[in-house]
């Protein structure tokens, strides 16, 4: 008699009684997919590599909890997301105290996913920015003959010296350059601004020909237009582009929940437009979203919601590219 | 001797010792007005009809407390608000557990106020968005021969199925269409964006010819210009326009204090400009402001302050229309 | 190769990689149990019946999320909880706007669970205090010949007049008395204190011979000793005792996350001891925990953690009773 | 038709539709009383005299807002508060920038109230602790021949040097001693503890024979018993006792909303018992409650609620003394 | 052996082990400079003069703590700040209870610093806005023959009547006009908007020919362009311009940590551009930043970070002017 | 002229203008002491070894900032702390990403400090609980012939398996037992309670004869009395006792700012009494305080204040032992 009302406990991945049409109805578990998914999500819940205290390791779980509140339909572009196949490979298990081991596992996971699903777009949910170096190394190992370009949206250059910090979240770009994985001139960083990079680091970037655009320049050109222009250039010089979105590129008034929030940053509107362009680009192969720290977020989980929205913009772009 | 310093306790409506010139000096209690007021405020403190947990029932009281901090003078337009007469009719008493009864009372209140003060602009302070359907039904019953148009500023379509939810805050537009109160083609919704309406609901809206503008389109045209254009159109097709402002139309970074805050929404600056245009329009007869939840607001009561400011913009527009 | 590290996404009820021994390893889904469980949990996520704004409907979900952080072992009593069988029947689906219908479903659920599992202890996770009246009515309907006694831990009498409020959270005890379900002299309320019940309500309680103990008297006797004494008395006068724990019985400094938190209340230590005594008593058949509101809790979810701990104390008592 | 539901806006002192029996129904405005009230409340909203930043000036307003949630009935003592007459004289208007002038007004207000209502108990709602010196000076000026004793509940001695700070919140006791208003040996301070008074200040207190009891000694004797014993002694040596309750005497876990919250302090339960004893004592003539800062309180207004409860305990004691 | 790791406790001004290049490495203590510094910082930690409760007195200390997280390099303009010499003169000691004395000390400090370092730009870190009147009076006394112009960025006119409030934070501009220190027509106020100045105050400003620009007008022209235009005009009519930045000019969504935060204000991006223009102008001699209240800021210290960034923009402008 | 008021910026360790008598006036920098200090403080700012996200690395800095608000005088015991000499050796520099290296440095630091100052009590300020194993190993290496006993105040056994977690904060006791540094029977753990240790870990503790006392047993005996009894026993079986205070032993209502806060824990009053007993005991040689996480603390820094108070209780005990 009470059958319709006694809901099962909230244990299951697609547990909602909402009418269908939400993100959790659409994304599949990787062990349940029947064909090769166009996009594979995987979490890298590591933030012990962060220079300052960070709870970014908590983000992958929050990301999946919040997506239940997002419809699988983009109103502005009139895009039905369910026409694109996405599988969730789950989180990489991190070691509690051995950061190098955790980094190694991320690298191997990226390698293995790319080996198994060479055609799929890999989308890593961080974690702090050190994870990006691991993912790119794994992809490079999987496809050693391919030249990788990087499009980075960030407030920071992330070229601190690993000799001093170890493989910390301030060092991934330098790790990749010095490890011979990516060449400086194949790296574009958009969103730098203000007083958040020392002169010494700026000089390093110049020396290695990293292409940088300040927020001021970026706004003059337009975020999307600049991204399109740079992706075009990178696609002519490299075999594939990896995009890394450090959410601290956003202004502190939009994104309080990142460990290094600063004033003077990007607006969400600009980021969302940029991610459409990124998704649309055939040159872009893989992406990550890093440095969202739920423990620093406001009570309404503002920054983490932006994180889900941002990822959906990339998905929308992918479909527009297909169509 | 101590007469000047011993202030009476803070029990009274116009209790401030501030120099005059503030909103609470200007708005009158409805039982004290001597002529028909140009605008009548009334509160509908109901949010039990909300799909998610909502404290929007607390807003009318906070609205009246905060207005003591607002001058009755618009600096930008050089408008003295006191040249316009506003009366506060107080709050409708809600039933503690019977939502249908509460809805009935709102409907009767709107009916009764319109019957008694047919020339006055009614301004309802919600409460959640279910209250809008009640208010419009009451007005329709009062003036059955008048065709009503709706201008809605909202992140959501609010066309969920009442058969499934009852008369909840996700359903008012569908209630009005299916109840024959307002026709779909007389409804304009501005501010929709992102991933907050399922495909199924978008299709319902299309089927019923609700006119929708995404934030992206809206920004291309300009919020005020679009509102003016649509009000013009509506005024040629209907007898009067009812405006409903769901404050969740605002971006989450401006308005955390709404139950369904999302990224990608309207900026306050845009909303404020739009409300000037709305106030100026002779076609607009009544208005409501819904879904502000003081219990979700930040410690500085940011969203509720925006709510007062928004209402004052509408008032400023009214005067500009008169003058 | 990466098999051990690529964890599946966090979708599953027993999804932890923690070494076994935690609560979520122990509690089973009701459709997976192989024999009649000794205790059945079910959630009643309703708080629209609350006089003040309440998010207590959110508690059942938070309760199940937090229990992953609790070991299934009581250190102080050296009790292994896994020797007791508990099944989770999930949540009752509430109607969005029809409170009476939601109440009816709770009543039917309690009836149906008791019909199906007449030997099991039912443990309802609220929801606000109005749900208690429903559960007890359901049990009474299931076993109409049994006389029910109530042991209530509460700051309030909950005897407001349903004629005025409807079946709100301030009325359950009066509903049960006036509905002839439970007699006033079979009700014991422990924890009343301070200035949180009007004279008129106290007089109602006296008139109906509800037995009340103020916190002051309770402390003089000792919470556990008083509970044991009163359960003994009730067991001699009734067939079974239903215990209802309104978490607002706790002092505001311990339990901020209840809608009506007050100073002068019970300490957690006292509540926990009392729940051991309650669990141990053969007279006690069913229990509920109500009025925990996660949206009012502190950032560290203090009150909800106390809620899980409190329930585990009752479980510990059950086992001590068995053993 | 809608008459019963259209409530007037919330402008009025007795604006609640709650069934009667709450504090705001009982306390009268001073200009409406018909006979001499037994107790007169007045607010001293000054905290610019505080050494650290303080918003204690906001407390009188919050105090009157929160009392609407308190019944005028003490459950534990079965006391109906309405048998005692209380009038609210409102707040003393403070000067915005001239602290000395504000202090002068408080002194004159206390003088004037005592001249007009010599039999009434004056109850001052602070404000910071500097206001106590003013109130006592005003009373002394009104009754110059009466010897005043002080019972102080406080974490601090408040004997810093006014020559260094001016008449700040750390100095009131020293002001009164050095101004010849009260003698050191007629001052008792209960609740001192930990590391919150320098050796130099302790030595000053000893030199002036202020009687001090640490929390540790106090607990050994029992708060109420110690208070009763000391009030007895003071009543034999002075004509009247003024009680000053600095709410920072409470432990930081109970009372976060005071500018100088410390661990190791009094529990609310102890304070509440002590205030019953104080209220019951015929020796006690006047009282104040100071240093509650709503802007530092938790979101649930925990400390301010304790403030209302504490005052009601004093009221309860007054009635027990009468009866 | 452990020498390299055992860091000294964090007691020292340049205590960081970060690689050099941060603000605290660059700013010198005034008693350690070897030549006349181009800019001198001094703190005026006074906010007892504020009409509403304010903790702006806490800002100078937070300002110096946060600057350790800012690089001494402006990325957008490619400016190395260390090419400009800045000395920190510390904070002016405020009197605890005598606001007039505190004001006198600020005035004398500004006088003395200008007498000792007549060529240096003085940069005052408030405190509330009353401190501006003191600083300008001190400078005028030091250089009585120089005509001073004021460029004010503010949401308020600050022309309330000192006869009513004393020298409060709402009065500094009126103090200066009525004290004959600055003439009304030499004052420009940019950023006024909304409903935050009464008609009466606007009329005062008009009567004294204060030049005002609403946010709406300002945006039409462009913040930087308007500032440049007005500085040009002021430089032709006065000998030097004093800039006062009341941080409440910013929109509440950017700057919650000011006592009078309002919607409709300036964006940080606009303020930052404006401060570049201000820094670049040779007409500008001195500056202050007032009304940042760390106790009202969000947990991530958003507003105070904006305060440091804003000051660095002015510094960047200074260097661009030199170069 | 302005000399007295222009305070130097707040850069210095003893920078306060407060009258002397506070903690920061008393504690000396280690490179400034003239004789061997009786106690040496050192910070171990490491929390990357924590199983859950922890910001305990931030505590040493907050500890030193807050002590400026504590007088160097214990009111209850009438003890002047300045009669005891304390030096601050600063913080050990942690590696950003290499936890093992950070652990090695802590071990060496403890070794080196003990070698240099063999008579001094070492007081380590953590950091998470993994640091305790390092400190004790360092001391053991310094004095290999001494048998060490451990008195642990904790909610957890901390005997998880390092083979699984590495040297994490859940493992230090097991590390020490399995490393042969301390024998199980020389370890006493007081404060265990509730559901925070799995059966498996309890069995490990029993197997290794760790002596454990639940909060319930502890309260029956009395915290201080139990501590005295166990220290007496340990002193007869070992050469010296190391005390480790995991602040999560406190109840969640007192100490929200610890990563694993639980209900059912110790009261501050009990901890403070216990630390007096610990300080008084000649058997106790060294101590640490771990697991205070400022980033989880409430806005008023409640838990960190308790941390300073707790340390001062130990200091008071030391002096009582001497005297």
From TrEMBL, chains A, B, C, D, E, F:
PROSITE patterns: ARGINASE_2. Belongs to the arginase family. GO terms for biological process: L-histidine metabolic process; putrescine biosynthetic process from arginine, via agmatine. One of its GO terms (molecular function) is agmatinase activity. Keywords: Histidine metabolism, Hydrolase, Manganese, Metal-binding. This is Formimidoylglutamase. It comes from the Bacteria. SUPFAM superfamilies: Arginase/deacetylase (SSF52768). Mn(2+) binds at residues 129, 154, 156, 158, 246, 248. Binds 2 manganese ions per subunit. Pfam families: Arginase (PF00491). Its cofactor is Mn(2+).
């Amino acid at each position: 008699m009470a059958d319709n009302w006694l809901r099962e406990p909230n244990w299951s991945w697609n547990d909602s009684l909402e009418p269908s049409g939400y993100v959790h109805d659409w994304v599949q578990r990787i062990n349940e997919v029947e064909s090769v998914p166009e996009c594979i999500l995987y979490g890298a819940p590591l933030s012990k590599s962060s220079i300052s205290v960070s709870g970014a390791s908590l983000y992958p779980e929050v990301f999946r909890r919040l997506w239940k509140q997002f419809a699988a339909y983009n109103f502005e572009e009139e895009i039905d997301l369910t026409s694109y196949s996405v599988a969730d490979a789950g989180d990489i298990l991190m070691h509690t105290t051995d950061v190098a081991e955790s980094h190694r596992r991320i690298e191997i996971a990226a390698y293995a996913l790319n080996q198994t699903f060479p055609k799929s777009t890999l989308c890593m949910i961080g974690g702090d920015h050190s994870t990006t170096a691991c993912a790119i190394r794994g992809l490079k190992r999987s496809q050693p003959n391919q030249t990788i370009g990087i499009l980075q949206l960030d407030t920071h250059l992330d070229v601190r010296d690993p000799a001093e910090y170890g493989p910390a979240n301030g060092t991934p770009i330098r790790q990749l350059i010095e490890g011979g994985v990516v060449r400086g001139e194949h790296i574009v960083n958009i969103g730098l601004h203000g007083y958040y990079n020392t002169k010494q680091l700026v000089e390093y970037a110049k020396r290695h020909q990293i292409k940088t655009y300040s927020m001021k320049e970026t706004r003059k050109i337009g975020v999307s237009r600049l991204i399109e222009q740079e992706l075009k250039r990178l696609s002519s010089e490299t075999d594939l582009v990896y995009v890394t979105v450090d959410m601290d590129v956003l202004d502190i008034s939009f994104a309080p929940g990142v460990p290094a929030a600063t004033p003077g940053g990007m607006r969400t509107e600009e980021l969302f437009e940029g991610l459409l362009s990124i998704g649309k680009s055939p040159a872009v192969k893989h992406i990550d979203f890093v440095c969202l720290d739920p423990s620093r977020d406001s009570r309404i989980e503002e920054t983490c919601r932006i994180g889900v929205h941002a990822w959906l913009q990339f998905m929308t772009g992918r479909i527009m590219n297909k169509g």
